[in-house]
UniProtKB/TrEMBL annotation:
<dbReference type="GO" id="GO:0030170">
    <property type="term" value="F:pyridoxal phosphate binding"/>
</dbReference>
<dbReference type="InterPro" id="IPR015421">
    <property type="entry name" value="PyrdxlP-dep_Trfase_major"/>
</dbReference>
<dbReference type="GO" id="GO:0009016">
    <property type="term" value="F:succinyldiaminopimelate transaminase activity"/>
</dbReference>
<keyword id="KW-0808">Transferase</keyword>
<dbReference type="Pfam" id="PF00155">
    <property type="entry name" value="Aminotran_1_2"/>
</dbReference>
<dbReference type="InterPro" id="IPR015422">
    <property type="entry name" value="PyrdxlP-dep_Trfase_small"/>
</dbReference>
<feature type="domain" description="Aminotransferase class I/classII large">
    <location>
        <begin position="32"/>
        <end position="388"/>
    </location>
</feature>
<keyword id="KW-0032">Aminotransferase</keyword>
<dbReference type="InterPro" id="IPR015424">
    <property type="entry name" value="PyrdxlP-dep_Trfase"/>
</dbReference>
<dbReference type="InterPro" id="IPR004839">
    <property type="entry name" value="Aminotransferase_I/II_large"/>
</dbReference>
<dbReference type="InterPro" id="IPR050881">
    <property type="entry name" value="LL-DAP_aminotransferase"/>
</dbReference>
<protein>
    <submittedName>
        <fullName>N-succinyl-L,L-diaminopimelate aminotransferase</fullName>
        <ecNumber>2.6.1.17</ecNumber>
    </submittedName>
</protein>
<dbReference type="GO" id="GO:0009089">
    <property type="term" value="P:lysine biosynthetic process via diaminopimelate"/>
</dbReference>
<dbReference type="InterPro" id="IPR019878">
    <property type="entry name" value="DapC_beta/gammaproteobac"/>
</dbReference>
Amino acid sequence: MNPRLDLLQPYPFEKLRALHQGVTTPAQWPAISLGIGEPKHPTPTFIRDALAAHLDGLAVYPSTAGTVELREACAQWASRRYGVPLNGQTQVLPINGSREALFAIAQTVVDASRAGATVVCPNPFYQIYEGAALLAGAQPYFAAVDAQRNFAVDWAAVPEAVWQRTQLLYVCSPGNPTGAVMPLEEWKLLFDLSDRHGFVIASDECYSEIWFGAQPPLGGLEAAWQLGRTDFRNLLFFTSLSKRSNVPGLRSGFVAGDAKLIAAFTRYRTYHGSAMGPAVQAASAVAWNDETHVEHNRALYREKFAAVLPILQPVLDVQLPDAGFYLWAATPGDDAQFSRGLLEKYNVTVLPGSYLAREQGGVNPGRGRIRMALVAPLEECVEAARRIAAYCSEPIHSQRPSP
């Protein structure tokens, strides 16, 4: 067996199941889960129809690079969304959802033979980053978010010695679980560091189309273009249809950016067997070409956040995120015990924040917080918020923590 498998920690939801073992949920409260970030809005009919209309593609071996139609649809969407021109043939590659590609890019770019090979990622973070680093033979370094700066990652606090060993940096903007969006000055800092040390930036932007302000979140490709980095050197952007179009089961997204990296990644994926099925490619192309369903989807999330926050804010330290569909709330007391108690008393599932982070320097930046995914229908989210408020109002929780 690969000995590196022993380095992998249990996934957050495995920890959650273990935490909830032995809990008897109250029969009078129907179960509501805010624990898993799985989109629950209906898949648009036109996407389902496109998938069904191309089932003859099941008889064809697909190419890793994907069809010209899909790559052009992805490139055109990036142009409309971010104002960046992409060459669909050299700078775009379809992927089977962002998760598998975010894992695979570490296997492509990390050279484990170099002493001290390091992969930097945010903390809290999406656990795929850590697993990808470890299985590629690198050491992960966790850069903590700063609660005083709207949970922005404190990249400047990463020691220079760490950057010197870094081969890959994972960025998540909008962030999971915090919803923080990176501004242009932070992108400039990371680009400058990448130029100095030669590492690749993998920008995970799968939550980019769920936002609440007047302007959509700044993306990595957009930031590079604004800063004159028109070749997107050492930058790869990862996105997905899962949240944008409510098709998590379609397993479809794309990666774009530095043409040299795209060529290397295509070569790796050809051997890995990562080609997207023709029916999925056809459905994906029509999804990227339509924005009406995305606007409707965004409106549904905005309605839920507008309804839930007034219920929670009197009893919890929680704010509207920059983007995404998570609330990142401080808990009165231990986050894991809060999660277990909430399930036991009111049959609502939330994810302890400490399960999404790693202790570094004696501090776990997720401790004392919970992640709530507002993916259920509006009525369920409101009911869950009312139960959480009731739980927080019990005498044992009446003393709110300081923000």
